[in-house]
Structures are given as C-alpha cells and as structure tokens.
C-alpha cells in the first residue's frame, strides 16, 4: 500500500517541517532557527514551498515522509527528505529547494 505524499503534505507537512527545522543544523545567523531561515527564504522567493516540492517528489518516488530538513549546503538551499517506501526500505532524498529537482536518492534497508 503506498502513501500519497500530497495527502500527507496537506495534513502534516507544515507541522513536520516546523519541528524538523526547529531541531536541525547550525544557524546561518546567530540565534535564527532553521524554520525562520526557511520562512525568510520562501518570503524572498528564493525557494519553493514545501508542498510544491513534495508534489514534485511524489511524481517519481513513493513512500511515507519520515523526516524533512531544510539546509543550505555550498550556497544551495536543499530539502533533505526521508521516505519509508512500500518495500520497507528508507530512501534519503536531496531535493533542490529552488526548483524541486531530486538531486540524489540513497536507499537503505530490507
């Protein structure tokens, strides 16, 4: 049974992103949370909304979102997304936050 990411995005993506962003990575600006950086980047038009990214991801990947992180790596904004796929494996995706392209997929598990 596969899980529809768009339904997940509609119900849980915002709270999940807020929790993931609040808990992850080093700050670009002292005291500024990942959530704040993501919000500011979105307001400046530098990144796509998470919902749009998840809709693009679901076109090529199936699974239940386990974790989402927002980072800036080598000057590039990224969403790092972990999916539990229907076969029980975990897929780690790096997604360009600017255009929603899946940059890499690594799979682990059974």
UniProtKB/TrEMBL annotation:
User: Domain PepSY: where?
Assistant: 53-105
Superkingdom of the organism of origin = Bacteria
What residue ranges are annotated as transmembrane?
A: none
Return any one Pfam family short name. Answer: PepSY
**Signal peptide per UniProt:** 1-29
Which UniProt keywords are given for this protein, alphabetically ordered?
Answer: Signal
| Protein name (record) | Peptidase
Q: Which organism is it from?
A: Melaminivora suipulveris
């Amino acid at each position: 049974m596969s899980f529809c990411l768009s339904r997940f995005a509609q119900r849980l993506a915002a709270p999940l992103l807020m929790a993931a962003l609040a808990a992850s990575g080093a700050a670009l600006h002292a005291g500024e949370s990942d959530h704040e950086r993501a919000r500011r980047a979105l307001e400046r038009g530098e990144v796509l909304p998470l919902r749009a990214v998840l809709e693009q991801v679901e076109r090529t990947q199936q699974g239940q979102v386990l974790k989402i992180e927002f980072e800036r790596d080598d000057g590039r904004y990224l969403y790092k997304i972990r999916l539990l796929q229907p076969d029980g494996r975990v897929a780690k995706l790096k997604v360009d936050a600017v255009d929603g392209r899946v940059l890499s997929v690594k799979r682990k598990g059974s």
